[in-house]
Amino acid sequence: MKEFKIAKPIISDLENHSLMSTVNEEKFYNCKFTENSKENIVINDITIDSCIFDKIDFNNITLENVEFLDSMLLNCDISNKIFDNKLIKRIIFKNCKMTGISFINASLKDIEFDNCIIKYANFSNAKINNILFKDCDLTDAFFMETEVKSIKLENTDLNNTEFIKTKLINIDFSESDIYGTIFDNYSVKGIIINEFQCKALIGMLGVKIKDE
């Protein structure tokens, strides 16, 4: 099996900036943000490149037509943000709250989700290549007709997560919780599970085991 590798963000020589001043300057390159703005901010029609966001609450930040490259989001709340049809590449999300985030028809490549809450996320029709979910809560997330080239799941909660018309051949679920995960017949084909998950998966498929 091909070794799993993720390209890291390319970040260097960062300067501290305030969100408000950066928006006014229309510059989001080589910036570090560590202070929240007290005012509502609109960031639109821009690529955020080589930046670090640390402890930033995006609830009062509107993102419109925004792409992310070579950046890190640490201890941030980016719940309910929409990245539909966008490019998200070489990004680390660590200790982030991402409930309800949408990646519909997005292109995600070389992404690390580390200890993130990603409940109710929507990955429908997204293209996923080299994605790591580590110690994440992906409950109630939705993958429909998602193109998965390479994904690694480590200790991730997939309860009530749905995989519909998503090719998952050789994807290893053995280190994660798939109790209550919903697979259609197309998606479940060829997945890798451990012996303790077999009974749960058989139950999901409507098969009954006769007691001896």
Q: Based on helices, strands and strand pairing, what is the structural class?
A: mainly beta
SSE order, as H and E? EHEEEEEEEEEEEHH
- Given the C-alpha coordinates, what overall shape results? elongated
How much helicity do the residues have? under 10%
Describe the structure.
By secondary structure, the protein is mainly beta. The protein has a domain at 78-204: Pectate Lyase C-like (3 Solenoid), CATH 2.160.20.80. The chain contains three helices and twelve strands, in the order βαβββββββββββαα. It has helices at 19-25, 185-188, 195-204; strands spanning 15-16, 31-33, 41-49, 52-54, 61-74, 87-94, 107-114, 127-134, 142-144, 147-154, 162-164, 182-183. Strands 1, 2, 3, 4, 5, 6, 7, 8 and 10 form a nine-stranded parallel beta sheet that branches. The chain has a three-stranded parallel beta sheet with strand order 9-11-12. The chain starts with 14 loop residues before the first strand and ends in an 8-residue tail after the last helix.
